[in-house]
Design a protein that fits this description.
heterodimer; A: MetI-like fold; 0% strand; B: alpha/beta; D-Maltodextrin-Binding Protein, domain 2; 2 domains; five-stranded mixed β-sheet; 10 helices
Chain lengths: 269, 255
């Protein structure tokens, strides 16, 4: 057989192995216990609390990320300024920092003995052991996913489109709101979905920074970890629920913003 | 499917194990994998290099977490827990050999080195005091609940109402205390020794003290079972015991 025929074969084999490796653990979660068992475990007090808390905290975190991240990404995408490369790198840094390190960093920054601890205390703002602390941890680890994607989406906009808006007399704010955001929407939605997914799965930073208490700081991943040692079926049930929710988010985004949404903007970035 | 899951878990343990590799050359000494309670960390890390028959690799986590891994088919050579309940359960399930009791410990109230709010058991239930304790099911959490359960109902309720975090192992509680996030928690006296200068212990009244006993067992089907048995023997009477005493552990209760 010639190399030209071997190569496509190798491609197919690689994809096959990758797919099997990536889907098997998730599939196993559903196959390991019966649907009846899964449903029964979800009825257990605490399980739905954890899931509800996860949706609530990730929702607030996502709102913060989008509100702050969209203008920031626009600035990074449209301006050339001294220190821009540094700014981009700093934004991406949380992506490569281990979550536990993120938690320790947050403690050192805004914990009771942290750099801003006394100031926050004077302001009456408590984060550690509080639901607000979970939101802070989620926002920290998830925002780079959104900002990166949003920046790429803005950068990929047709410059002539923005130029036309400006020559017609629209201010930058108006161009941003009326032209840039609507046209970059698929990329922004994709970035939001990635950030949301990352926030839903957050574990280490939350545990280290905010702690773990049912109904207050114990999000679904923390609840799964606790159940892993006590009640494996319950851990599986909650895991299955989280996989289903995350999968639904991904699927929803694909349906809303077209098949290219999650790949397109990222590939150009 | 169950076997597949076990294989996945074993793979994960293997990958995790790679990180803690000390890089020493294997030679002809066997490699012994020991899954141990987090509270044993400093004692075992000083014992490990002194154990001549094997190169020892440790996997520290909450005892309950490690037991759950063994139930899922992960096979360390030795399992050492901060209670006797979990090793006894695994023994009954046929997963480990007969557990050996090898050390005792003492539960204490722990506060940051310069405490602001807590100086006695009575302070734990006061308004505004923030407590971090071990989660239920983790030995340190179970011992804590045992102690709190012996208190009068009103004091018990006010203490439990002050719990702000239920941590998966002693490391989590220590961290919350050294960072000043929590005002107090319950830990073993050996944890205080390991984090000296950052935290301080307040002794519990004798009548409240739970029976903290450590037990270890060789995992059934372990690759290095003979070395594992030696490792445990040395814990009872040998360099292992010396390391335990140095770290502040006592003999197993009743010995």
């Amino acid at each position: 057989m010639t190399a030209s025929r071997l190569f496509p074969l190798a491609l197919v084999a690689s994809l096959g192995v990758a797919l099997a490796f990536l889907t098997l653990p998730l599939l196993a979660i559903f196959l390991e216990s019966s649907p009846g068992e899964l449903l029964a475990s979800l009825g257990e007090p605490g399980a739905l609390d954890a899931l509800g808390l996860s949706l609530q905290t990730t929702g607030v975190a996502l709102a913060l990320i989008v509100a702050l991240g969209t203008p920031a990404a626009w600035l990074l995408a449209t301006r050339r300024f001294r220190g821009r490369a540094l700014a981009v790198t700093l934004v991406e840094l949380p992506l490569v920092v281990p979550p536990a390190v993120a938690g320790i960093g947050l403690l050192a920054a805004v914990g009771p003995q942290g750099l801003l601890g006394p100031a926050l205390e004077r302001a009456g703002l408590e984060l550690v052991f509080q639901t607000a602390g979970v939101v802070v941890a989620l926002t920290f680890v998830a925002s780079p996913f959104y900002i990166r994607q949003a920046q790429a989406a803005f950068a990929a906009l047709d410059p002539e489109l923005l130029e036309a808006s400006r020559t017609l007399g629209a201010s930058e704010a108006r161009t941003f709101a009326r032209i840039a955001v609507p046209n970059a929407l698929p990329g922004l939605v994709a970035g939001g979905a990635l950030a949301w997914g990352r926030a839903l799965g957050e574990f280490g930073a939350t545990l280290v920074f905010a702690g773990s208490l049912s109904g207050v700081t114990q999000t679904a991943p923390l609840a799964i970890y606790e159940r892993f040692s006590n009640d494996f079926t319950a851990a599986l049930a909650l895991s299955a629920m989280l996989v289903a929710v995350s999968g639904a988010i991904l699927l929803g985004v694909k349906l809303v913003s077209g098949p290219g949404a999650l790949g397109g903007a990222g590939a150009r970035g | 499917m169950r076997r597949l899951l076990a294989a996945t878990a074993a793979l994960a343990a293997l990958v995790a194990g790679c990180g803690s590799d000390d890089g020493s050359r294997p030679g002809d000494r066997p490699r012994l994998t020991v899954s141990a309670a987090t509270s044993l960390t400093s004692a075992f890390e000083s014992y490990g290099p002194r154990f001549a028959p094997a190169i020892v690799r440790f996997n520290f986590a909450g005892s309950d977490e490690l037991a759950a891994q063994i139930r899922q088919g992960v096979k360390p050579d030795v399992y050492a827990a901060a209670n006797t309940k979990l090793p006894d359960q695994l023994f009954e399930e046929g997963l480990v050999e007969k557990p050996v009791r090898f050390a005792g410990n003492r539960l204490v109230i722990v506060v940051p080195a310069d405490p602001e709010d807590v100086s006695s058991l009575a302070d734990l239930g006061r308004d505004g005091v923030q407590l971090a304790i071990g989660a239920e099911g983790v030995p340190v959490g179970d011992y804590t609940l045992e102690v709190v359960g012996r208190l009068p109902p009103s004091q018990r309720r006010s203490i439990l109402a002050n719990v702000r975090s239920e941590e998966p192992d002693v490391g989590g509680v220590v961290g919350k205390l050294t960072q000043g996030a929590a005002d107090a928690g319950f830990l073993y006296i050996t944890d205080v020794k390991a984090a000296e200068r950052q935290v301080r212990a307040i002794e519990l009244p004798r009548e409240l003290q739970p029976n903290v006993e450590y037990a270890a067992a060789v995992v059934r089907g372990a690759k290095e079972a003979p070395a594992g048995r030696e490792f445990i023997e040395d814990l009872v009477d040998g360099v292992g015991r010396d390391a335990m005493r140095d770290a502040g552990f006592g003999p197993p209760p009743g010995r």
